[in-house]
What we know:
Helix content is about 45%, strand content about 15%.
Amino acid sequence: MSFMIYDRFQEEAIRWINEGHSVIVSAPTGAGKTAIAEHVIETCIAERRGVIYTAPIKALSNQKYRDFHKKYHDTIGILTGDVSINADAPVLIMTTEIFRNKVLDKPEELGKYSWIIFDEVHYIDNPERGTVWEESLIFLPEHMNILALSATIPNIGQFAQWIESIHKKAVKVVIETDRPVPLHFAYQCHNQVFDNLNNIRRTKSYKANTTNGLIKHVREKDELPCIYFVFGRKRAEYLANELYNFNFLTSHEQAEITNMYDGLLERFGLKNDKSAVRMQPLVERGIAFHHAGMLPTLKEVIERLFTSRLLKVIFTTETFALGINMPSRSVIFDELRKFYGTYVRNLKTRDFYQMAGRAGRRGIDSEGFVYTRINLGRTKLDEVRTVIYGKPEDVRSQFNASYATILNLYEKYQEDLFKIYPLSLHYFQTKAQQQSEATRLMGAKLKLLKEYGCIIDGALTMKGHFAKSVYGYELLLAELYGQGVFEELDEISLGVIAVSAVFEPRKNQRFPSGLSKNTLEVKSISEKIYFETRRKESRARIYPFSKMPYFHLAKAMECWLNGMAFQKILQFTDTDEGELIRYFRMAVQILREIKDTPISPELKTRISKALHYISRDVIDAEKQLREG
């Protein structure tokens, strides 16, 4: 085991862990929560006990696998749906979705694991995916202890009380409010930089803020490297290119980064990639951009350049802040407004500090610098104060049991499944009216599942067993199964339906022409099923509606399965290449889930072939991790 000097809150958490208690840690980004997780991992390895580490996004799971594998070697494995490496390892990293699925569907596989580490556990209040965390905690096996790591949240005590109430054992709360590297806040307004918000005055005419002016200021103050957060991919690229006339590197650094970049491109097969070639002139000046629309391998190259400290300014979207260990000396916010699922609003204070916390490198900087660009035409000074100096938001439950969860519960508890809801954080936090509505919603979903023939005479049918394994797409895929459609599909059609089930188009996204006859037939059947399902959900007041299948990537998937090169299939979609890879990998996960359901051996064989054809070249997530 490694020996190191711990901060007060780390020592406190480790003491409770050593005494066998579950622990929840609330601390600012960059405070050193990972050291506590590493203590659990090292203890479990030494004592030959298993530990699971869950993360909210695959990018973070992958990074943790790389970091931990470097440190703990073959004791580390990863399981994320599209990646399965060393899946029986004593230390297993997975997305929270995969853990939830195991807890509900295959709890016996968790017998050897004595600890579960939930990284970024405040994700429980994510409207789309928070239920996954809640279900994971509700159904956690009795023998497993919890280490939950969270950003600063005020109601961490309430959160711990809820876990104690359902598992009947103590949960110790450890809170740290101070950062080891304090933050200094400054503001760009009227194209000037202010150290104090109170010194900014509204005026009838003022100069527009310029990126170049602010970057010049940061450079002169010796506050590089800098992470510049923007809330749009195109904006990140535009601002990076706008900085082209700057050169942040000495001739020696320029030679070093060019060498490193060329070597990484060679290693990841990117020498002839257009995006990588376009990025090169920026990289040679110490500039880059990073967002979800890029090739995963190119993102990894940029991350490695940044950790080498040769990249001085990186323009990136917010996922760069989520647990990925990429600290810098300063952070800039392009603005304080972002899109929250359905509408644009001011940043949550918690989200602001998740990103701001990347400023200040522990052991290197005595202070981190955070700059906020303020456009008084869009954001009032009082709103800026609320975001930066307000109290972080409480974690609130977003519980909404999926059809798959209800089927898994029904299999174990039948009609008693309604006794599970009072164990939820939602029940713990809400009043009678909201509790009544949540119960009604579960009942409506159960009734619809019976109507669809997933449950007959108090037991799951074959269709029900199928549906309980395909989280998020249950009714559409179960109907395709129930109607015998899947058994008729070839490898190409299987890939098309999988990617269409997961795809979510942007506004005004282009639809491809020239779809094959088979695809048009599958599209027609799927849409008919969907609209009938939506009609029934609307009548039963079930919300949100099941996800609609979108066939915008069907042509690209057809061509990919027929062996076409990745750069060539891009002509059939206006989806960013990184997004296309993400959706194809999600299709892989769906097909793997279907393969584990009660289907014919012939269909299993066709799915295996489809998986083989899809998981090649840049789509092969395992290849990237193994080679990386």
